[in-house]
Amino acid sequence: MDPALLIPILALSIPIVAIWTKHQQKLAEMNVQTTAQATAEQAAQYASKVQQLEDRVQVLERIVTDKGYDVATQIEALRDQRRVDDEGSGVPLGTLNREKA
Questions:
Q1: Coiled-coil segments, which residues (predicted)?
Q2: Where are the chain's structural domains?
Q3: CA distances, 93 to each of 66, 67, 88, 96, 100 (Å)
Q4: How far apart are CA 64 and CA 71, in angstroms?
Q5: What pLDDT sits at residue 60?
Q6: Residues 6 or more apart from 63 whose CB is under 8 A from it?
Q7: CB 72, CB 79: distance < 8 Å
């Protein structure tokens, strides 16, 4: 191959490589921007969810620490009622009259 022919090919190749490199750089920047935008949106959603959970915890803390609200007594009352319902304890009213008769 003639060396004189390589010079124009090389001269044309340099701008093509430069254009291709610049294009690749722009694609990479767009990818970074898209990722940053998605990450920012996700962070905002997480912050909102955390704030909601913190608000709920504050409400629960207020309920539990309220002096007029006795959680343990109410829980035990519910357990006692469930135990009566599950065990079927107690005597049906209809059987009392039959036994006495």
A1: 36-63
A2: 3-80
A3: 41, 40, 13, 6, 12
A4: 7
A5: 86
A6: 69, 71
A7: no
- Say if residue 9's pLDDT is above 80: yes
Sequence-separated contacts (24+) of 42-51 with Cβ below 8 Å = none
**What is the full DSSP assignment across the chain?**
--HHHHHHHHHHHHHHHHHHHHHHHHHHHHHHHHHHHHHHHHHHHHHHHHHHHHHHHHHHHHHHH-TT--HHHHHHHHHHHHHHHHHT-S--HHHHHHHH-
Total residues found in the chain within this entry: 101
The pLDDT confidence band at residue 96, using thresholds 50, 70 and 90, is low
**What angle (nearest 5°) sits at the alpha carbon of residue 39, between those of residues 33 and 41?**
105
